[in-house]
Design goal:
Elements: H1 2-21, H2 24-30, E1 36-41, E2 44-49, E3 55-61, E4 64-69, H3 73-102, H4 108-137
Antiparallel strand pairs: 1-2, 2-3, 3-4
Length: 143
């Protein structure tokens, strides 16, 4: 029983210690009521909108505070993703239109016609080979 109390005491101390040393700005990010998370930076504050993800730098200028949007590749990436989604849509429509012309298998009648043609070629080739073989087998009477 005493050992369980010691373990419970250690766990309680760890939990309380984590709560004591947690940063206030990290706790604010988890708060569903706060829309903005502020982080102190050199010469101002970094402000992130938790609903949109936009980041601004806020600094004192001319006796007031001014917040300017931070250069973000996110908008460029979203634009590129939208362009690629459009391109995928175009390609899918193109494939759907041309799919029937590229992947049609021949009918049984067409397969039979091709096989009949090759059968005729093989018979003619075999006849020619037999002709040459017979010609070699005959003794030459001219000698």
């Amino acid at each position: 029983m005493g050992q369980k109390l010691v373990i419970a005491g250690v766990v309680a101390i760890v939990v309380l210690g984590i709560g004591y040393y947690a940063k206030p700005d990290l706790l604010a990010a988890g708060n569903s009521q706060s829309r903005y998370v502020m982080k102190d930076t050199k010469g101002g504050y970094l402000r992130m909108d938790t609903q949109t993800g936009n980041v601004s730098i806020c600094r004192p200028k001319a006796n007031s505070w001014v917040c300017e949007a931070v250069a973000d590749d996110r908008k460029a990436l979203e634009k590129e993703i939208a362009r690629l989604d459009d391109r995928i849509g175009v390609l899918k429509r193109h494939i759907k239109k041309t799919e029937s012309t590229y992947f049609n298998l021949p009918s049984d009648k067409e397969v039979d016609q091709v096989l009949s043609y090759f059968e005729g070629l093989v018979k003619r080739f075999r006849g020619f080979a037999d002709f040459l073989n017979d010609d070699e087998q005959k003794p030459d009477d001219s000698i």
